[in-house]
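Why this split exists: single-chain examples teach little about how molecules sit against one another. For that reason, every record in the complexes split bundles all components of an assembly together and asks for one structure covering all of them. Below is a record exactly as it appears in the raw files.
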Amino acid sequence: MLWCDMKILIVDDEQNIREQLGKRLRRDGFTVFTGANGLEGLRQFHAERPDLVVLDIVMPEMDGLTVCQRIREVAETPIMMLSANAVTEEDVVRGLTAGADEYLEKPVGMDAFVARVRALMRRATMVSAEDEKSYSDGHLMVDLKRRQVYVRGVKEHLTPTEFKLLAVLLENAGRVVSQRELLEQVWGQEYAEDLYYPRVYISQLRRKIEPDAANPTYILTEHRVGYRFEKQPNG
Amino acid sequence: MALSGIALIVSIAALLLSLLMLILILWQDARSTNSRTYALFVGMVILWSSGVLISRLGASVGAAPSLISLGVRLIEIGFTGACVVSYLLVFVLSSGQGERLTRLIHITVWSVLILQSVLVLSTELPRYQIRADGALIYRLSEWGVLTYTLVTAAALVLLWQRRRKLKSRWSLLGISLFCLGVLIELISPELRYRGVGSSLSAVATLAISYAMLQTQIITPLIGRAQQLESVRAVGLTITQSLNLSRVLATIAERAALILQADCALIFLNHGDYLQLAAEYNLSPKFIGTRLAHGEGLVGSAARTRQTQQVENYRRDWHGAPDIPYAKEGFGAAVAVPLLLDQDVQGVLLVVAGVDSKRFDRDDLHLLGLLSPQAAVAIANSRNYEAQRQLAEELTEATNQLRDMDKVKTQMLQMTSHQLKNPLFSALSTLENLQHEVRDLPNSEVQESLSVVHAELQRMERIVANILNLERVQNGKLAYAELNIEEIVEAAVRDLSRQAQQKGLTLHAECQSPLPALRGDRHFLTQALANLLENALKFTPSGGRVQVHAAEIEDCVVIKVSDSGIGIPHADLSRVFERFFRAEQPNIEHARGSGLGLSLVKAVVDAHSGRVWLESAVGEGTTVYMALPIKPITESAAEIASA
């Protein structure tokens, strides 16, 4: 895949981190813009319309979570959180709830960082290349081509990762998809050990599409194996 | 005639009552000096009154002159005896002290009595007349009148001097009345003829008898009741309260009330000094007054461990005053050491005001009953108070430690977070730099950069370990149902390459099926990885590392054993301590943060499990992690996180 026309926005208050990440990404063929704080990052986003955003969390002016939420209000651009904050599941959930697709903890090796960026890009672009498949029952409608999801007729905003996850499950409807399979198909080979990713995203997805997230009917958990998408009778 | 008739009846009745009381008193205690002197006195008065009765009845019925003479003789002997014994009675009733003095007075009194009796008996028959109105007229010898007047006057003077020492007002009244009767007998022959003096003396004897009854029987009985009451009250104080100040106040109050003292003070022993801790009826401003051992009456009681008593503080106490102005305000005072196992807990000082009461043997006896209980009460309260204080200090210290620990944790977390950004900055710069110089011919630069990179990564691992440890210890775990086989597989898979590179055999074996358990996947995997890394690190090339998981009783036990260098016995108990690293002189490359095993222990603890190890130097080490199968409830998770 050619990345030269891909634009990445890096928002971090540490100048050297911006420079070094930028240097590495440029070397790999990406076009890079930077922002030194949340507000500047948001301005850059609107000015440049990047294909991916790398966001620090603790920043002056506006923190990364807020920037993420602001972006999500207008776009579904893949967002990667890159934070020095302790990564507990709570932190990850907070970031994902704000709309991020990825949560990386500083410090991270440059190669790993670039691999994650590529995986995220791949996830975002692959969806649009999906066949014209769609699913519809009385409650849920998924338009894979247009990357749109409707719940009870109302459009639901899904992040690229959430959408990709739903697409993989839908593709394998009626069959159990293991956590590792999900990781590889949705996130990529680099994520094979991050077993908690599917769990966190599945719960996010359930909240958005299930009639009752506590008693799911679409995305069912197969104990100690994985997840299964169950098509509902057209009602 | 009617007057003398009434007087006669009154005196007979009074004497009969007195006789009854005498019998009671002698029955209660016939051996005391008081009882004997009193018995002698009553006997003399009865002799006198009998003489009056015989002679006057004889005269009125015209009896033989010898009978009347006998009556008159009895009058003389009884009168003499009563007069003389009255002095002795005043002396003993006013608590006359001193063996010699008492003996001297006895000898004098008895000498006078015997001499007078001999004189009376050896002289011719007494002269008497019977008047036309039937009244018996007899005369007393001049020197006899002089003697009786002197003795009576001496008795009156002694009575006045020692009036405060008499325990009953009835004795003061009775003896005064008796002396009055005697004086009437001596001064007025007319009233004597009518028997007024003897009747008055008989009534006086009744009063004295009542006083004796009061002091010998009634007061001791009441005293005993008070003793019981005071003992009960102190007992109640001991059991009902452990509040030291309340206990002290009650003891001071009780002591003062029981002894009818004007005030009571309690000094507590503080080792080097005694300090006034409680007062009754004194100004609270004196609380806190200190006395050295041996200083004041109180200090003296503490030093000697003996009760110290003065009748008159100003006159008799020559040492330092116990409190300021004590010499101006204190009369009689008693200081009782409060002893428990010969330890002076404190001193009780009971004080009567100037010109107020004096403390006698009974008072001291009461104090003797009170003081051991007071000592026990004080010791208990002080112990309790000391324990309470200790507990408070301990709680405070614990809270401080907890706060400090919290601050430390926060600081550690903050520092670690603050380190992450510069670390990331340095690592990313270095990686870019490494990329830029990768084609340079000088491999030394690249080698140096690699070293810097490795060190930065080590620093990163340490920071991550610190944060992980804090996270686990703060209970930030995500519990879910786990398959231990998966965890073992994942950990072994991660490290198999490392094992291979070092030429070690890494082998895992799990009992199948293993029951699922609730736990944090990430941290349990991390804990197992830490154990495996350690095993690989300390096992020389060609060795083997084995993982074995099985269900044993209510636990899944994961065993990691190696054929490594082992851990010295002295270090075994410390290997799970934070930052502890055993001495490994032959393993230069084995550089760790000293946090790996701490994290293992923290993770296992958070799962309510147990971790232990067995090791022999040169043979290898086996670490066991036992994780309970019983699902961890929310509360258990909370406890683990507390």
